[in-house]
Amino acid sequence: MENKQYILKERPYGDVTSDTFHMRRVSMPSLREGEIMVKAKYISVDPYMRGKMNEQKTYTEPYVVGKAIYGAVVGEVVKSKDKSYQPGDFVQGIMPWQEYCSIHTEDVTRVNVPEADLPTALSVFGMTGLTAYFGMMKIGRPKEGETVVISGAAGAVGTIAGQIAKIFGCRVVGISSSEIKNHYLEHDLGFDETINYLTTDDLDYELSRKCPDGIDIYFDNVGGKISDTILEQMNFFSRVIVCGQISLYNSKEKNIGPRIQSMVLTRSMLVQGYIISNYYDEYPQALSDLTKWVQEGKIKSRETIINGFENLPRAFMGLFRGANIGKQLVKVF
Ligand SMILES: NC(=O)c1ccc[n+]([C@@H]2O[C@H](COP(=O)([O-])OP(=O)(O)OC[C@H]3O[C@@H](n4cnc5c(N)ncnc54)[C@H](OP(=O)(O)O)[C@@H]3O)[C@@H](O)[C@H]2O)c1
């Protein structure tokens, strides 16, 4: 049987290109006691992977040049050397970008949903949903009537974060790069207002028009100039959830922004970054709340799915061009 794998061919300097990746054929994995062979069904592409392509260690180890890229995968067990897993079971875990891999069962979790719902294990019930949940619940702490602004609003985390804020009775303003995305946010997800940051001449003015009472919570997915502008309009005792800085991930130079400390001081602002794994012990409660909200129809999950293992690089690079609405996934089999 054929087995394909993507490796990191070279570290990108600036934008990721197709030269960053190389697809190669590898042998089918062998199995040791306690392991399963997993056929990848859906592979998640995520902005944080850009950081792992750099040489420097951050909160996570860099990818190794010449070795497989890895990330979140949902797959089907096709062989098992663990009695508690049978062929046909679905599992998720951190696995290589590879059609078939072997993995110890201690490193996977079972996914008990029908095959048609597998994408949700990587979106609303995966890192995406958990990131939105903990950012909003632990740092944002939304209260009824507050104004919440979300950048990267039509992306995986942004769509869920906005819907959580709506559950708590907030007025939610989403920022994205297109009218199609903004239409989706307002008409399908119930966002109150949206702004297209690419077509507006004056983001500061648009924000003040759409947030007449100022901003109480800012869910920052993008950083850079968009965030610089938003921070100027934060209220007293406002909270800034620093979730991601995607607009800077491909920067070749160190980015110098405004000095925000005076603003933080005089407005008693809370500015807090976080990494989802900080809240690992609380995942069960978060998943229980997210499940309830999805069942009640309060949260809708959307995935943009590209077919074909060979399209993994294209799907990944698309994140930096805003090609996705909701969670970007690649369907392998
Ligand atoms: N803290 C954590 O533990 C954690 C966990 C997961 C994700 N994150 C972060 O959360 C953010 C969102 O992640 P996600 O998985 O939900 O990705 P995503 O939002 O689904 O995809 C990325 C989106 O970012 C926007 N974007 C790309 N380049 C941009 C630029 N130069 N300026 C402004 N917007 C840009 C695009 O939307 P537009 O078309 O609207 O531009 C694109 O669709 C990322 O920064 C990610 O690193 C953090």
Report on the architecture of this protein.
The chain is of the alpha/beta class. The chain has 2 domains: 4-123 and 302-331, Quinone Oxidoreductase, Chain A, domain 1 (Alpha-Beta Complex); 127-277, Rossmann fold. The protein is built from 9 helices and 15 strands. The chain has helices at residues 48-52, 127-140, 156-167, 179-188, 203-210, 224-231, 261-266, 283-295, 312-318; strands at 4-8, 21-25, 35-44, 70-80, 90-96, 100-104, 108-110, 147-151, 171-176, 193-196, 215-220, 234-242, 270-273, 303-307, 327-331. Strands 3, 4, 5, 6, 7, 14 and 15 form a 7-stranded mixed beta sheet that branches. It has a 6-stranded parallel beta sheet with strand order 10-9-8-11-12-13, sandwiched between helices. Helix 2 (127-140) crosses helix 3 and helix 2 packs across helix 8 (283-295). The mean pLDDT is 97.
Beta-strand portion reads: 25-35%
Q: Termini distance?
A: 14 Å
Number of helical regions:
9
Biggest sheet architecture: 7 strands, mixed
CATH class of the largest domain reads Alpha Beta
Helix content: 10-25%
Query: What would you call the shape?
Result: globular
- Write the CATH architecture name of the largest domain: 3-Layer(aba) Sandwich
Rg over C-alpha atoms, rounded to the nearest angstrom: 20 Å
Number of DSSP-assigned strands: 15
Bound molecules: NADP nicotinamide-adenine-dinucleotide phosphate
CATH superfamily of the largest domain: NAD(P)-binding Rossmann-like Domain
Helices and strands: which structural class?
alpha/beta
